[in-house]
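Here is the promised in-class demo. Please do not try to memorize the tokens; focus on the logic of going from shape to residues.
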């Protein structure tokens, strides 16, 4: 029977950025990094109060609080009135929601000349996890009236990975830049399924 994340990483309780970083690095270096990171995240979001306290000062909707060659750690906050554009990450990502409900529109990679097609809608409430592979395409938002907040563990150095954005209407792939990303954000009412 595998040890739980709390037993393997006893310094994790209660949540503090420094101990979470150390635990995430150990999980990413383990023999089964996907399982270890998911176990760590599942254990971490069981008690959301210290996570909320650790990021209470963050006014932006995201904060990259650690990055090295093997992983990038982010706090993200998605707003209910807007949908971020369809994009990939180029690396696997594990998302642990600790407040609200994150709604993701999940798309298949478009074929040459084809659009994005109909998304699969996946809601992830507080306390649950969602994982996407390197080629996974999602357009996130928050379900309900309030924001969602989550810890994202990217299995690589996100700031240096070649990533793609996808045009809402044509599905055309364009290189990821923050300027393009912000230009493709849409009001929730303009995105079917959101």
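The designed amino acids, position by position:
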């Amino acid at each position: 029977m595998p040890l739980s994340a709390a037993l393997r990483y006893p310094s994790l309780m209660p949540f503090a950025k420094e101990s979470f970083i150390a635990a995430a690095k150990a999980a990413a270096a383990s023999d089964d990094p996907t399982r270890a990171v998911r176990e760590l995240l599942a254990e971490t979001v069981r008690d959301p109060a210290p996570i909320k306290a650790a990021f209470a000062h963050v006014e932006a909707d995201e904060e990259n609080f650690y990055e090295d060659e093997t992983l990038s750690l982010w706090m993200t906050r998605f707003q209910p009135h807007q949908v971020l554009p369809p994009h990939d990450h180029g690396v696997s990502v594990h998302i642990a929601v600790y407040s609200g409900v994150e709604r993701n529109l999940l798309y298949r990679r478009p074929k040459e000349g084809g659009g994005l097609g109909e998304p699969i809608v996946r809601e992830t409430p507080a306390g649950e996890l969602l994982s996407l592979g390197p080629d996974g395409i999602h357009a996130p938002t928050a379900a309900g009236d309030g924001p969602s907040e989550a810890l994202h563990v990217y299995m690589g150095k996100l700031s240096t990975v070649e990533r793609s954005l996808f045009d809402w209407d044509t599905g055309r792939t364009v290189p990821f830049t923050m300027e393009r990303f912000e230009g493709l954000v849409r009001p929730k009412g303009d995105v079917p399924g959101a």
